Amino acid sequence: MQQCRNFHEVTGNVIVPNMVRGIDHLKDPRLNKGLAFTLEERQALGLQGLLATNFKTQEQQIDIARISVDRYKSDLNKYLYLVELQDTNERLFFSLLDQNIEKYLPIVYTPTVGLACQRFGLIYRRARGLFISINDKGYVYNIIRNWPEHDVRAIVFTDGERILGLGDLGAYGMGIPVGKLSLYTALAGIKPHQCLPILLDVGTDNETLLEDPLYIGLRHKRVRGEKYDEFVDEFMKACITRFGPNTLLQFEDFALPNAGRFLKKYQEKYCTFNDDIQGTASVVVAGLMAATRITKKKLSENIYLYLGAGSAANGIANLTVLAMMDEGLSEKDARDRIFMFDVDGLLSTRRSQGVPKHAENFGKDMEPETDFERCVEIVKPTCLIGCSTIGGAFTPSILKLMGKHNQRPIIFALSNPTNKAECTAQAAYDNTEGRCVFSSGSPFPPVSYDGKEYHTGQGNNSYIFPGVALGVIATSAHHIPDYIFLTAAKTLAEFVHESDLKIGRLYPPLKQIKEVSLSIASEVAEMAYKKDLATVYPKPKDMQLYLKSHLYQLKYPDYLPKFYKYPDMPNIKVKSFDEAYSGIMTSTDIHRPLGKHK
Ligand SMILES: NC(=O)C1=CN([C@@H]2O[C@H](COP(=O)(O)OP(=O)(O)OC[C@H]3O[C@@H](n4cnc5c(N)ncnc54)[C@H](O)[C@@H]3O)[C@@H](O)[C@H]2O)C=CC1
Ligand SMILES: CC(=O)C(=O)O
Ligand SMILES: [Mg+2]
Known about the structure:
Elements: E1 9-11, E2 14-16, H1 24-27, H2 39-45, H3 58-71, H4 75-88, H5 90-99, H6 101-108, H7 112-118, H8 120-123, E3 130-133, H9 140-145, E4 154-158, H10 175-188, E5 195-201, H11 207-210, H12 225-243, E6 248-251, H13 256-266, E7 272-274, H14 275-295, E8 304-307, H15 311-326, H16 331-336, E9 338-342, E10 345-346, H17 372-379, E11 383-386, H18 396-405, E12 410-413, H19 425-430, E13 437-440, E14 447-449, E15 452-454, E16 457-458, H20 465-475, H21 483-494, H22 498-502, H23 513-530, H24 543-548, H25 577-580
Parallel strand pairs: 3-5, 4-5, 4-6, 6-7, 8-9, 8-11, 11-12, 12-13, 13-16
Antiparallel strand pairs: 1-2, 9-10, 14-15
Helix pairs in contact: 3-4, 3-5, 4-5, 5-6, 5-10, 10-20, 14-15, 14-21, 17-18, 20-23, 21-23
The structure holds 1,4-dihydronicotinamide adenine dinucleotide (NAI), pyruvic acid (PYR) and magnesium ion.
């Protein structure tokens, strides 16, 4: 699909008309430029009359699109407008996002994407990504082959069982891989045709959905056990058979019983990571590193208490242990500083349920405790981290306790979407006399406290996964070890300026996020060469330049390059095909060597 479809292929002095004609240039979101087609292009491509006679520049179109989105009052309608735009004019969609990232990130991503997933049956219009069902078991490769793009480098996939903090949304979870991959392009410049969202439909245990006439997925309980595992296994194999051994496979929003064990199972076998475990760990450790500059306490001098002991909590805790070991602590001493509290209470080795296997590193030989506030009183954490999916769980009295025990209490309310956050930014400031160091998974409006305004930052893995993905894809790395995420965390933390800290922000502003992603990608790529994970040779001399040369071009392509003279060109001089179409054609992308696999 990506070959020569928008051009007349020029071979020697023969012009071969391609298959895309006239109106297809308008119907294909990747080719469409709307009223930005020039008169010459309209004539040459057979578009005259199919467009209104006026012309608009891309900049004018961006303005019009922005005005159109902003006219909608409801965020879900804004989301729908943007989806529609992505489906009709991809470059316009991404350039609109690029110029308005702070405004539209909360629409294409958390919190609005959560609402979109909940209403997915109602808003589902057009295929975006692949739905692969358990009934396709045995034929998964054939289904993947139906995807029309050949040059896929990254797949984000979910089985929909833990969508944000909203629980099991089954096939409605497709909104998440779609949203995450939009960020691959918007935040790291990865080309959209290289990204494939996939929903693995194995049923749902959500009774409301099973009875929902609008539901679009398999209408039965989740298939679990051996059959489910075999299906996921077949899926992993089919992806690399179809797209190559170094295809990046990002697990997203799998439920706790599966997330960690799949990571363990596949981390050494495929080029894969789990965003909720590793991406989240990286962004939070970066935030903790930035916080040390405010609290004047090293990571290894803090006491951490987690509300929630699932994928995110354990990912963060394990990476924090690595970071504390970097500061000189032993592994045991580092673990001893981390306490967790799950749905059954404090992770105490003495409690009747015991400590769940996925969190066994953090069980403590202490009296069991099921009251979280009492736990805060006993443990006296310097840092409270919420990944419990329980909105408002950090009550005013818990926050006050944090303020009582600490000069600068660190409070992270990471659960998504907004209504699942453990507390709001305003509540954190109000109940700690404005002394807290705060971040949240979904954005909060600025906080006013004691006559001062604070702009708290978003501790969200979106600061990490696009950059890591770019670094991994560009070097065709064959695996993604945990230390890659520590590298990413350190890079992100370095972007935080004193001016950010002063206004309560532990992360750089979103308008810098592309620059951040590029730096993360560059550091990840350097690390990939250092650790022999990279398979693109020779190693580029200037990594940032190399990465930049492969980024998605937001500017509309010129469909009639200079040398092109239509229709008669007896002895035309053409540049090499690659040269002529560089930046436009997808077939000239980064050379993709075969990967190494253990
Ligand atoms: N800010 C970010 O970048 C990220 C945020 N998250 C958010 O974190 C939340 C958790 O995600 P995961 O860890 O993947 O989920 P998970 O399902 O693996 O873990 C949830 C944990 O919360 C505990 N929990 C549930 N109800 C509780 C209660 N009433 N009291 C105490 N603990 C309770 C569970 O026992 C479990 O340990 C979600 O809302 C998700 O959206 C997840 C990944 C990234
Ligand atoms: C941000 C994210 O990955 C989550 O909430 O699941
Ligand atoms: Mg997630």
